[in-house]
Design goal:
Blueprint lengths: L3 E3 L4 E3 L32 E9 L4 E2 L5 E9 L7 E10 L5 E11 L3 E12 L6 E9 L8 E9 L7 E2 L12 E8 L2
Antiparallel strand pairs: 1-2, 3-12, 4-11, 5-10, 6-9, 6-12, 7-8, 7-10
Length: 185
């Protein structure tokens, strides 16, 4: 099809896909939804958000890391992206002990320590609280599914069970969330 210029409405017809030289079309010329997230440029552009939630609990007296019930999976769209993993849960550390929380990954990429938080502490046996833990996975290097799991341990032998998530609710609704957000690096 030949190019047709219409001066009365300022349009050009007959331009093939890829027919304009680089640099001719700028961001202001594009419609708001004309470019998919994968083709957008710029660090921090959100590619996808995946969330898992549950109403289950984990408890133990372990001083070595054990797997909790908090787990979620995401399949990255780009191998060089960053996965932001946010964990929100009610917890009850063992009395007079520090609780250590660790995020691990498996699947398309294996890393046994994405990040560790170690200063969750309670002085008595009746303290529980909600916690939000942000993690940043910068080196997954895959577009295969990655499963993230939360592991917990207490630091010493004092105190009784720790709970992560806490199971001490009157109506058995223990809510935890793990949210995985993939962003361009």
């Amino acid at each position: 099809m030949a190019l047709t210029f219409n001066g009365s409405n300022n349009t050009i017809a007959g331009v093939a896909v890829g027919g304009l030289p680089d640099g001719i079309v700028d961001e202001d010329m594009l419609a708001a939804t004309a470019v998919s997230p994968l083709k957008r440029k710029g660090a921090g552009t959100v590619l996808q958000v995946v969330e898992a939630t549950g109403n289950t609990a984990t408890y133990s007296t372990s001083q070595t890391y054990i797997e909790t019930v908090i787990t979620g999976s995401i399949t990255p769209l780009k191998s060089d992206s960053v996965i932001l993993v946010d964990v929100a849960a009610p917890i009850w550390p063992a009395a007079t002990e520090y609780m250590h929380v660790q995020l691990r990954s498996s699947g398309g990429n294996t890393n046994n320590d994405i990040g560790t938080w170690g200063d969750n502490y309670t002085k008595t046996s009746d303290e529980s609280f909600n916690i939000w833990l942000p993690f940043r996975h910068t080196s997954h290097s895959t577009t295969s599914a990655i499963t993230y799991k939360v592991f917990v341990r207490k630091e010493g032998a004092d105190g009784n069970n720790w709970y992560f998530p806490n199971n001490n609710t009157g109506n058995s609704t223990i809510s935890w969330t793990i949210r995985m957000t993939e962003v361009l690096a």
